[in-house]
Amino acid sequence: MKITVVGAGAVGATTADNIIRRELAEEVVLLDIKEGVSEGKSLDIYQTAALLGFNTKPIGCTNDYEKTKGSDVVVITSGLPRKPGMTREELIGINAGIVKGVTENILKYSPDAIIIVVSNPMDTMTYLAFKEAGIPKQRLIGMGGALDSARFKTYLALAMDVSPLDIHGMVVGGHGDTTMIPLTRLATYNGIPVSNFLSAEELEKVAADTMVGGATLTKLIGTSAWYAPGAATLLLVESIVRNQKRIVPCSVYLEGEYGQNDICMGVPVVLGKNGWEKIIDLELNETEKAAFEKSAEAVRSMNGALNA
Ligand code: NAI
């Protein structure tokens, strides 16, 4: 198994670190355009091997795609992160150029790779990568819902004063402050609806906090977050590499599912060795369906900016 992470910034390096600690692959390549950064971070990560006890040796490289040759899974995190006050959507111009170039280079050396897109605005970057790549749709996956769902579960757990491990819940739709849809109606505390424990107002607050979860951190830290994004990306990579068939909301190319066509948006999918293997069709109520439709309109208008 060989895994490449493109972009050795905060999210990329954290993702690589997580993958390496779990020994998910014999080879892990970390690639960045900035001279020395991926080499330095790889060495830093490898220096934890003797302390934490793992054997995978990361390979750092500056824009040398030959080193990525034959990768089974590639994670794209290259691109600008948001600064306080910015939306993910404002990153489109510069990140589109980066994601397009990276996708081309990756496929030159790893034509069979499963590609996970993290760069923002993620749904549009996933759509762009899919159109550029011309590979089966099951091999192109955007990471956003995994992170948003983790934030949703955390806010629910905090509101209920329980462990996040006992909370099940999902966020679907677009990966944007106004486009994501925390599915409060379907969230449970070990199978019991969370509405048994929290009032409608409390649930509304949890949903609102979830939607601005990323922006809250960006405001506090001064740049966008990396621990939870790195762990959420690990969830996708691990389910694929170990063929775990976990159900994770991911941005995938829709052809009629959830009433949408020619768009990448967050829906629950089964992740296994072939990428996303199946879309789970949740029975959304009318309000949730309307929210999904509205979210799709926003994502579609963002995709339109790719041709502007
Ligand atoms: P960062 O600035 O720490 O790292 C980005 C890295 O990409 C830099 O090291 C930069 O040199 C590199 N890079 C730029 N152009 C490149 C190219 N052409 N080839 C290779 N490397 C290149 O940013 P951070 O915080 O790691 O975020 C990365 C991206 O992930 C951003 O677009 C951010 O908005 C997004 N993100 C997405 C999340 C999601 O849930 N989908 C969550 C968190 C961040």
Automatic annotation (TrEMBL):
<dbReference type="GO" id="GO:0006099">
    <property type="term" value="P:tricarboxylic acid cycle"/>
</dbReference>
<keyword id="KW-0560">Oxidoreductase</keyword>
<dbReference type="Pfam" id="PF02866">
    <property type="entry name" value="Ldh_1_C"/>
</dbReference>
<dbReference type="InterPro" id="IPR022383">
    <property type="entry name" value="Lactate/malate_DH_C"/>
</dbReference>
<comment type="function">
    <text>Catalyzes the reversible oxidation of malate to oxaloacetate.</text>
</comment>
<dbReference type="InterPro" id="IPR001557">
    <property type="entry name" value="L-lactate/malate_DH"/>
</dbReference>
<dbReference type="InterPro" id="IPR015955">
    <property type="entry name" value="Lactate_DH/Glyco_Ohase_4_C"/>
</dbReference>
<dbReference type="InterPro" id="IPR036291">
    <property type="entry name" value="NAD(P)-bd_dom_sf"/>
</dbReference>
<feature type="domain" description="Lactate/malate dehydrogenase N-terminal">
    <location>
        <begin position="1"/>
        <end position="142"/>
    </location>
</feature>
<dbReference type="GO" id="GO:0004459">
    <property type="term" value="F:L-lactate dehydrogenase (NAD+) activity"/>
</dbReference>
<feature type="binding site">
    <location>
        <begin position="7"/>
        <end position="12"/>
    </location>
    <ligand>
        <name>NAD(+)</name>
    </ligand>
</feature>
<feature type="domain" description="Lactate/malate dehydrogenase C-terminal">
    <location>
        <begin position="147"/>
        <end position="299"/>
    </location>
</feature>
<dbReference type="GO" id="GO:0006089">
    <property type="term" value="P:lactate metabolic process"/>
</dbReference>
<feature type="binding site">
    <location>
        <position position="151"/>
    </location>
    <ligand>
        <name>substrate</name>
    </ligand>
</feature>
<feature type="binding site">
    <location>
        <begin position="118"/>
        <end position="120"/>
    </location>
    <ligand>
        <name>NAD(+)</name>
    </ligand>
</feature>
<dbReference type="InterPro" id="IPR001236">
    <property type="entry name" value="Lactate/malate_DH_N"/>
</dbReference>
<feature type="binding site">
    <location>
        <position position="120"/>
    </location>
    <ligand>
        <name>substrate</name>
    </ligand>
</feature>
<keyword id="KW-0816">Tricarboxylic acid cycle</keyword>
<feature type="active site" description="Proton acceptor">
    <location>
        <position position="175"/>
    </location>
</feature>
<feature type="binding site">
    <location>
        <position position="88"/>
    </location>
    <ligand>
        <name>substrate</name>
    </ligand>
</feature>
<dbReference type="InterPro" id="IPR011275">
    <property type="entry name" value="Malate_DH_type3"/>
</dbReference>
<dbReference type="Pfam" id="PF00056">
    <property type="entry name" value="Ldh_1_N"/>
</dbReference>
<protein>
    <recommendedName>
        <fullName>Malate dehydrogenase</fullName>
        <ecNumber>1.1.1.37</ecNumber>
    </recommendedName>
</protein>
<feature type="binding site">
    <location>
        <position position="82"/>
    </location>
    <ligand>
        <name>substrate</name>
    </ligand>
</feature>
<comment type="similarity">
    <text>Belongs to the LDH/MDH superfamily. MDH type 3 family.</text>
</comment>
<keyword id="KW-0520">NAD</keyword>
<feature type="binding site">
    <location>
        <position position="32"/>
    </location>
    <ligand>
        <name>NAD(+)</name>
    </ligand>
</feature>
<feature type="binding site">
    <location>
        <position position="95"/>
    </location>
    <ligand>
        <name>NAD(+)</name>
    </ligand>
</feature>
<dbReference type="GO" id="GO:0030060">
    <property type="term" value="F:L-malate dehydrogenase (NAD+) activity"/>
</dbReference>
